[in-house]
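Encode chain A's predicted structure.
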Amino acid sequence: MADKTLKDVSEIMRNIDLCMLTTTTSDGALASRPMSNNGDVEYDGNSYFFTWEGSRTVSDIELDNGVNLTFQGDNGIFISVTGKGEVSRSREEMEEHWVSDLDKWFENGLDTPGIAMVTVKAKRIKYWQGEEDGEVKL
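Encoded structure for chain A:
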């Protein structure tokens, strides 16, 4: 078993733009969708994603906040982050994580009606790379 640190995982995740965010729906099914971390990875165990307030992502998290993120990076690394999702509509909180690349999705920036931010607070991080696997202690 290997011993990657939270800092090691942060460096890897910084170079992986898209992950799959999995939530649980109202009927108990799992639903996954691609999300971008927008390079916002000074990783302390939290991940931030922008979405629409009326999206299934938001309704799922508000019903059951258990979520999972899966990342696949270069050199055959896979990372699984299990945690709790929170939805914020606070402009102040969103400003801390806004990057200009988001303007292509939200044309009026943070003034776009219906914008929301999902924060995933990691509880467990596992990784696999070839025969190496491990868990990051949080």
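The longest strand covers residues 115-129.
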